[in-house]
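Dear Dr. H.,

I hope your travels went smoothly. While you were away I took the liberty of generating a structure for the chain from your last submission, since the lab meeting agenda had it listed for discussion. I wanted you to have the full record in hand beforehand rather than looking at slides cold. The sequence, exactly as received, is reproduced here:
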Amino acid sequence: MAFLADALKRVKPSATITLTQKARDLKATGKDVISLSVGEPDFDTPDNIKNAAIEAIRRGETKYTPVAGIPELRQAVAAKFKRENGLDYKWQNTIVSTGGKHVIYNALLATLNPGDEVICVAPYWVSYPEMVALCGGVATFATAYQKDDFKLQPEELERAITPKTKWVILNSPSNPSGAAYTHAEMKALTDVLMKHPHVWVLTDDMYEHLVYGDFTFVTPAQVEPNLYDRTLTMNGVSKAYAMTGWRIGYAAGPDHLIKAMDMVQGQQTSGTSAISQWAAVEALNGTQEHLPKFKKAFERRRDLVVSMLNQTRGLKCPKPEGAFYVYPSVAELMGKTAPSGKKLETDEDFVLELLNTEGVAAVHGSSFGLGPNMRISYATSDEKLEEACKRIQRFCAELR
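The corresponding predicted structure, in token form, is as follows:
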């Protein structure tokens, strides 16, 4: 349709949202559906955070906020980066946006010129390349292979960098694979970036607190302080605090970048919800006593799902270090025929047949840039996960 912008031709709808909606539609017809397609903790927001929001409403904190966020939250963000990541930022070098996605979009919009390249590490979160395209840039790809536990190797990063590269987006722990980088693994990547001073680093640290066992989280500017002046460190409260619907993301970076993002945001959305910001102040400054409970539950669920999937015919599922996703390979099942008579030629065929036959919603790996795999979110109850895995086992056993 000529009325619509040409930019829309460069962008695909989000596969995760599409699959989640398909699952909802099937459920509405009365089918018993277990959705493992959405990246959202099933826990409720902790009470201290909810109470802080209620108190903010009662105090009358219901007006417009400064574009880059209320000073109290920006100070809490700077304190968090110092306390947890060893990163020194003035509060004026922070920004608060309507979710982590909004932070990333603002950074890209404020910096990309036509033809500028942004390296996305496959498998990548579905929105990265689409946001790059909307902002006029070109998404390029560096692959993190299953044989390397979905962790980008330095030679792959080196190969992906060109004179046109402006950003590399590093997401650890990863959506969709759950892979997280140790200090040594991250240092190998930052060593490559030190050789290319024109390349900036955009971190997506949204799953920082969801790491398991004795794994220690690190972020690029912490590992290589010489990258500090060309790194935007992004995080948010959605996952670790079960605050997906509150829509608060935040970042810290060099002064000129934060000012540019502030200007973009000022003409786009202005400041985010005052009530959500006061809730986020409590999330960052208040008790963290919910976190061990969240982590214990997610680790138990990860172990259950990995074990059951690896007992499933034709599936191979690495055990990730963090987030709440697994990314099993379905390569051995390609070419087989589903009970419906449909031949499985792609991982999208696989997840659609799984949904229609067994009522289990997952997301096909090719939408994250690396297949044939599927992403399963284990952010739901043990009972649902066990039943879903039994259905997956049955579906795979019946393929011919």
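Two observations you may find useful: The radius of gyration is 21 Å. Residues 6-44+290-397 form a domain with the Aspartate Aminotransferase, domain 1 fold (CATH 3.90.1150.10).

With kind regards,
E. W.
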